[in-house]
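ENTRY TYPE: paired fold submission
RECORD: A
CONTENT: sequence, then C-alpha cells
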Amino acid sequence: MNHSGPFVICVCAVCYSSIIQVHEGGEYTTKISGNNRARFLKVADQLLSGRICIASMSQGASKACMAIALRYSATRLTAGPSGKSDFPILGYQLQQHALIPL
C-alpha cells in the first residue's frame, strides 16, 4: 500500500494541525522545537494515551464477558447424577477449566 498519496497528507494535516502546518507545496512547519526525535516523542506521547484507553476498555469488556459466562454456566442445567436436569454445567470440571484455566 502506498502511503504517500495526497489523501494521507490531508488526513495527517487535519489530525496534527495543532502541531504541524502543511503548505501547498508539500513543505511543513512545526511548532515543536528540536530534532526529529523530539517531534517523534511528542506524537508518540499523544498516541500512548489512546492505547492505554483501548487497553482499559478491553479489560472492562473481558470482565463483563467473564461475568456473563459464569452466570450462564451456573444457571444452565444439564443431566446430572440423578438423571434429571438439575445439575449446573459449571459443576463439570471441563467447564470450570474452560472458563478459568489454572
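RECORD: B
CONTENT: sequence, then C-alpha cells
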Amino acid sequence: TIKKMAESEEEVDVLVQRVVKDINNAFKKNPNIDEIGLIPCPEARYNRSPIVLVENKLGVESWCVKFLLPYVHNKLLLFRQRKQWLDRDALIDITCTLLLLNPDFTTAWNVRKELVQCGALNPEKDLYLGKLALTKFPKSPETWIHRRWVLQRVLQECCPQGAGCKEQGEADRPAQAERLQRVLQEEMKVCSEAAGRYPSNYNAWSHRIWVLQHLAKGNIKILHDELSCVKYWVSMHVSDHSGFHYRQFLLKSLVGDPSIVLDKDTLSLAVSSPDEHCASLSKGEGVSVETQRTAVPDLFDEEMQLCTDLIESYPGHETLWCHRRHIFFLWHHWNKEHYRGCGQASVLKSSDGTLNNTLSETTGGKTAQDMDVDVVLDAGKQGYTQETKRLKRGPLQDCHGLPSEHRFIAKVLNDCRSTEQSRISMRCIGLLYHFDCH
C-alpha cells in the first residue's frame, strides 16, 4: 500500500522500492508495452500504486517522481562507487526505472552496456527499453547513442569476423539474417515514431541514416523503399527540414555510386540471399552506362515533381524551396559529371568487337546529338551497311535545366499571393544565376 506522504527516510525507501517493483511487474504482466508517460497528479489522492497500466500504455503518477528519481539515482551511484552491492537483476530493474524517467543519464546506459557484454542482458531487450524511453523523450541524445552501440553489438553477433567464425554451422545463417532484418525494420519504425513526436528531430533522422549505412550497406532495395516510404511523411511535415535532409541522403546514395542499378526491373529482384545477410545486396558490378542514364533521371523527375506539388499546395515554406534547390544542385552536378565521364571514353571496344559511340556532350543544358549509332565493322566491306546499324537511345535531355526552372519560378511569382513565397522565390532566382555563371 502506498501512503499519501512519507514521514521518514526509511518509509520513503520502502515506498520507492514498491514502486520499482510495480514497474517491473507491469513489464512482466504485459511485455507489449509500447508507450510510457507521466500522469499529472500533484499528490497521492488514492491509497494505491502510482503505476497505471492501461492496455499497452504505462503511466506514472507525477507525484512519486520526486521520491523515485533521487532514490534510483543514488542507488546506482553508490553501486558505481563500490559503496553498495547490487545483483544483476536489481541493476536491471534500477537502471530500467531510472532511464524511463531520465534517459540522458549516461552512467545508467554504461551499466547496461556492461550487463550486455557479460551476457546478463539481451541486446533486444535493451533496445526495447530505449524505444520506450523515446516515446517520452524522443530527442534524447544519450538514448540514440546507446542504441547505436547495441546495434553494433547485434551486427557483430549476426556477422562474426574471423576464420573460426566461418566454420559455424550454415544452419545459423538464415536465422541470423532474419534477426538482422527484424532489427532493421524495428529501427526504421522507432525512428519514424520519434520523428513524429518531436518536430525537426535531427537526432532521430541522423540515427536513421546511420542505420542504413551500417545495417543496410549498399542495399539498393531498402534505399529505394525508404525513399518511397518517407514521401508521405515529408508531404505531411512540409516544414521539417530534417526529413527532407534524409531524402537528400537517400538520393545521394542511390545516384552517387556508379555501380548501383536503379531500374525498376532490377529493384524487383533485389532480395538479400542468406549467404550475403551481412553485406546485404550486391551492388551490381558491371552496370551499363545506358541503364544509369535511363534510371537515375527518373528519380530526379519524381523528386522535382514532388517539390512542385508541395510548393504549389503549401506556399511560403522555405524548407520546400531549400530541398528543391538541393535536388537541382545534385541533378546539375550528376549530369555534368556523368556526361563528362562518357565523353572521356567516347569510343570503347566491347568484347564482341562492337564499337560503341557513347560520346554525348551537353552544352548549356542541351544535348549535342539526338541519337547514337552502334556500328559493327565488317572486314570485307567498307564502312557499314544498313544491316549493321543499330539505333541506340539518345543522350538524356536536360529536362531540369535552367530555362525550365526559371519558368517554374516565374509561374509561382505570378500565381502566388504570399509575400513569403515571393521572397523565397526571388532568392532562388539569385542562386540560379550562380549556375549560369558556372
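NOTES ON RECORD B: The beta strands are 35-39, 51-54, 57-61, 347-349, 355-357, 362-363, 366-367, 372-375, 389-392. The longest strand covers residues 35-39.
STATUS: closed
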